[in-house]
Amino acid sequence: ISKNTVAPTRRPITSKMIALKICAFAANTVFDSRSIHQSSTMLVWTCVRLIFELLSLIVISEVIGVLTGSDRVRNMVEVGGWWQPVLSAAQENELREIAQKLVAPSKGILAADESTGTFGKRLAAFNLENSVELRQKYRQLLFTTPNLGEHISGVILFEETFNQKTDTGERFVDVLKKAGIIPGIKLDLGIVPLAGTLGEDTTQGLDDLARRAAAFKKGGCEFSKWRCVFHISSRTPSHLALLENAKVLARYASISQQAGLVPIIEPEVLCDGDHDLARAQKVTEQALAYIYKALNDYHVYLEGSLLKPNMVTPGRGFSGKLVTHEEIAEATVRTLLRTVPAAVPGIVFLSGGQSELDATANLNAINRVPGLKPWRLSFSYGRALQAPVLKAWASKNIDAAQKALLVRGKANGLATDGKYEGEQATETAAEPLFIAKHRVDG
């Protein structure tokens, strides 16, 4: 035997093994032909012994529950015949506190995690060069906006942004923290085709995720985001796409929590197509059901996670009756109540190509839907917050750009409480920000 070979060890006796032994004992007692001829006294003593062992098993199970903490039993894995916690109590507390801060009342998340290519397309619309310097200037404008922390609880960064600094040499991460804003990081590495499907996708980036997550945590980030997309057509989403993307999101969430980052789980049902509201609701329910099954399988600590879903809306090509904000809100809340556990502290919606005004009005209507909603319902918007900012900044009006960001932040903050009453806005504020087959960024 090699000196590196580990000698087999005796497996510890567990409650599961005790139960099996008791069942075997009972079966032998009842069905053994020799037992049939035992005296009635012997049978009585046998039954008493069986009852005693069953009661002992119940007591042992209760003691285990008290020692481990009943609220942590779900978040454990069986190792060597014994249940051990995936996360320590301190890790769980940290994740839960961060998640709750991200969905604080009247606040939401600014998604500033556009990739270099995506941001370049937005700059091209204003005939601006997609250079490192211009991207740094724009992000500096966003993060140094006075009083931004009054409406924004967290900012999702792209890796380039995470490494950038202000003109005075201060890291963007530190600028945000000083403003009372929690820095986060986009961890997925983009959408790729899913083999064996009819044009469906999955997301890459799991291979070195543990290393990257640990590095971003060390660098000051407190949460992360990962996006998967689902397509609606007559033959999609397929079972394969639903299963694969749910597993990818669950693996990401588990690894992220191990690194101390609160995972924002983003399953986006794309609004390409001509499907109606009912079809959008059904597919969103399917996707979320698959995802929360996978999160449970991978022992993800739900209290230390957030969900970033799409609102339930008809496809962009839908030609039927115009759907109201209230109908969208009711379909969205109904979907969430059917699929998202109450343990999740908050849901932060993506804007999904809606106009600035529609994104705010729909969020407001969602929070006004009557009945119990066990989670905070907030926003994690990119285009719906930044569109007017980018337009003003392209005209070299920094003050106007920062003011536009505050206006949209305040409006959406009010919508998280169901207190948005509308506003005077430009014509462009009502224009959709939809991008067909939006496969790159959330």
From TrEMBL:
Its EC number is 4.1.2.13. It is an enzyme of class 4 (lyase). One of its GO terms (molecular function) is fructose-bisphosphate aldolase activity. Keywords: Glycolysis, Lyase, Schiff base. GO terms for biological process: glycolytic process. Pfam families: Glycolytic. It catalyses: beta-D-fructose 1,6-bisphosphate = D-glyceraldehyde 3-phosphate + dihydroxyacetone phosphate. The keyword Lyase applies. CDD domains: FBP_aldolase_I_a (cd00948). Transmembrane segments: none annotated. Pathway: Carbohydrate degradation; glycolysis; D-glyceraldehyde 3-phosphate and glycerone phosphate from D-glucose: step 4/4. NCBIfam families: FrucBisAld_I. PANTHER family: FRUCTOSE-BISPHOSPHATE ALDOLASE. Belongs to the class I fructose-bisphosphate aldolase family. This is Fructose-bisphosphate aldolase. The lineage of its organism: Eukaryota, Metazoa, Ecdysozoa, Nematoda, Chromadorea.
